[in-house]
User: What shape does this take?
Amino acid sequence: MKTKNTLILLCALLAAGACRPSPQGGTTAVEPGTNAVIETIMSRRSIRQYTGVPVGRDTMDVILRCGINAPNGQNKQSWAVRVVDNPEWLHGLASALAGDGMSAEDVLQRGFRGAPTVVFIAKDTSYPFSETDCGLLTENMLLSAWSLGIGSICLGGVARQIAGTPAAQPYLDRLQFGDGFELVLCVGFGYPAEQPEARPRDDSKYRFID
Ligand SMILES: Cc1cc2nc3c(=O)[nH]c(=O)nc-3n(C[C@H](O)[C@H](O)[C@H](O)COP(=O)(O)O)c2cc1C
Assistant: This one.
């Protein structure tokens, strides 16, 4: 029984992924529930169902500022970010992507997961680390949003569809990314209407090398 309890405690600490540098060197496990950043990271889930409530621009502004404060190569800030919260605009884009038995409503629900705000992120094709920069920017946005009670979903499928659909070109033009920039990812934001379980992670993907 004692071994089982020790195991449960160990699992809880590991699940929290929680370590901080100790003044003596090495690391100290952090008590679960005592570190807001770790709690946010570990509790965030992709949200694929949203309430109809739009996210205020002031709130999105906080999230975007967190995004652009991400670490990035040579501080080039090699991203271009556009935010669309106009439902007619999003419906128009979805209509351009519709076809093959998918209506605009289907695209909004399946492609954009019904998110009321969509952030479009483009990389600088002339900078080899730009996609990494965009990923770090994205993660800062997802985590800051979650800490504010706002859900998010990365939308790689629809980003690729936009890039490959000539009818969507006018919408890409309206995003005005500029020369040398290419859409890499769309990210939906909104208030969660679901509480998904964590998807399993494979901890054999990392290891220490002696
Ligand atoms: C680059 C990228 C593209 C993604 N594209 C989609 C997508 O098109 N549709 C979708 O439902 N989820 C998409 N996701 C979300 C992943 O499926 C999700 O992050 C993963 O299953 C882990 O689940 P979690 O975010 O809840 O931890 C994408 C995530 C990333 C990072």
